[in-house]
Structure formats: structure tokens, C-alpha cells
């Protein structure tokens, strides 16, 4: 599996396209809001002859969902979230204009994903871990063969997700990290929703929130 990342919108959110040798791919957390951002993503998919088969959200804060409806309209694919984050998603149209995003186009999930589900595309399988704390329905996607994790806003390089937003809980987030992410091998690379990638081992050793 190959991970291709893009940084979009004023929140500098990381959008990921996961693809393998079959050229099937899934899009995780499309943060593309502006037309040029949408074009960057679709141009990459076209130029690499990829076939989008699913849209996934790790969680549904505004910066991670800007492009959901655009992806659905463009590729006609299923859109999956954890059901516990449905209220988070449904709240976005209420506050998007006050954040300066009056053109936000809301999307409706076609299904839900849960702990221990397997996301399949091409020859690839992703394990779903339920990791609430930053958002009530936050999930991460783990690919065991390449030891990579698409981590959303749970764990960052030397930091953790904020917990002061509605539905956030600091102790729940720490528990999610310790009981889910920190059970993975130290060499696992975490691709977060913001900023550079890191590893489980490095965060166990250096993350000041988790010592």
C-alpha cells in the first residue's frame, strides 16, 4: 500500500489517498475546500490512473470534511464514518459560515464503520480502531503489512489532539492512545491529520503528554 498526502485549507489538514498495485484507492479526510485544492486531488488521481472506491473520515470536524460531498459527486463512492461522530458531522453546517466557510456543502454518510471492521480495497485490508477523545466517533486505520496508521487527530509528533471541542475528553483520548495506538509495534509510522508523520516508538519515548 502507498500513502499519498496533501495539505489543504487554512487549518493545514492532511488528506490521504491510500492506493495499491491494483490502482484501487480510498480517500481519507478530504479537506479540499477551494477549487484549486479539489483540482490538485483529482489531478493526482487521474494522473496516477487510480480508481476511487471509498471515502472515509477518521472524524468529522470541519477541517476534515470540507471535500466530502465533492468526492461523492465526483466519484460516486460510499462514504463511511463511525456512527458516534454523526452529530459532529451534522453540526458542521451550523458553524461553518461563522468560521468563514459559507460554501461548505454537507454530505450524508452511506454507512458506518466500527471497531474491528476491515476496510478492503484492491489487495489491501485496513483494520479499524475506535479511538474517541478528540471526537466522540474518532477512528484510525491501521495497515499491518506496511506498519502504517492513518491517525487523524489522536496522536501528533510530540503532541496529542485537542479535547476542548464539543464531545472531547482528555482522559478518554489518553486512554485511546495507550490502549489502542501504543499496543502497536514501535516501528509503526503514524500519519496524522496535521503536521509531519511520527512513529509509535518515538511518541512513547518523547511525547510530553504521555510520559
From TrEMBL:
<dbReference type="GO" id="GO:0016787">
    <property type="term" value="F:hydrolase activity"/>
</dbReference>
<keyword id="KW-0479">Metal-binding</keyword>
<feature type="domain" description="Metallo-beta-lactamase">
    <location>
        <begin position="12"/>
        <end position="194"/>
    </location>
</feature>
<dbReference type="GO" id="GO:0046872">
    <property type="term" value="F:metal ion binding"/>
</dbReference>
<keyword id="KW-0862">Zinc</keyword>
<keyword id="KW-0378">Hydrolase</keyword>
<dbReference type="InterPro" id="IPR051453">
    <property type="entry name" value="MBL_Glyoxalase_II"/>
</dbReference>
<dbReference type="InterPro" id="IPR036866">
    <property type="entry name" value="RibonucZ/Hydroxyglut_hydro"/>
</dbReference>
<dbReference type="Pfam" id="PF00753">
    <property type="entry name" value="Lactamase_B"/>
</dbReference>
<dbReference type="InterPro" id="IPR001279">
    <property type="entry name" value="Metallo-B-lactamas"/>
</dbReference>
<protein>
    <submittedName>
        <fullName>MBL fold metallo-hydrolase</fullName>
    </submittedName>
</protein>
